[in-house]
Amino acid sequence: MSNDQQEKYVFVIAKSMVGCFIGLFVKAKILSRMRDLKTTKIKTGMGGGTGNKGAVIVRFKLDDTNIMLVNCHLMSGKKKGQKRTEELNMIFESAFKYEEVNRVSIYK
Fold it and tell me: N or C: which end of the chain has fewer CB within 10 A?
């Protein structure tokens, strides 16, 4: 592949759920260094029953570094901060069922 082709972005993978979408594009020169590519979607709407709220996730390993990208759509409302924190924790716990998870408390 020529140097010009190595510098171009290539599509790798995508995942969608109702209004959430995540697409992964990387430069062609690093594509061969990516491993363990996975996607998932986590529904949190109506207690996890519908996909109107939740997240789409892409995970992969680049060399020796694990990377996760999350696009989420959480509950709205100024006074719903605690509910959003609960949704985030549900997303993280579901996305990492077999790994230790650090809980979040970013919304007060």
Answer: C
Contact status, residue 81 vs residue 105, Cβ threshold 8 Å = no
pTM: 0.78
Comparing 105 with 56, which gets the higher pLDDT? 56
First to last CA, the chain: 51
Position 107 in a domain: no
Domain with 49 in it:
3-95
CA distance linking residue 91 with residue 51, whole number of Å: 12
In angstroms, the CA 89 to CA 105 distance is: 9
Domain assignment of residue 104, yes or no: no
Largest Cα span, the chain: 54
Return the bridge partners of 14, or none.
23
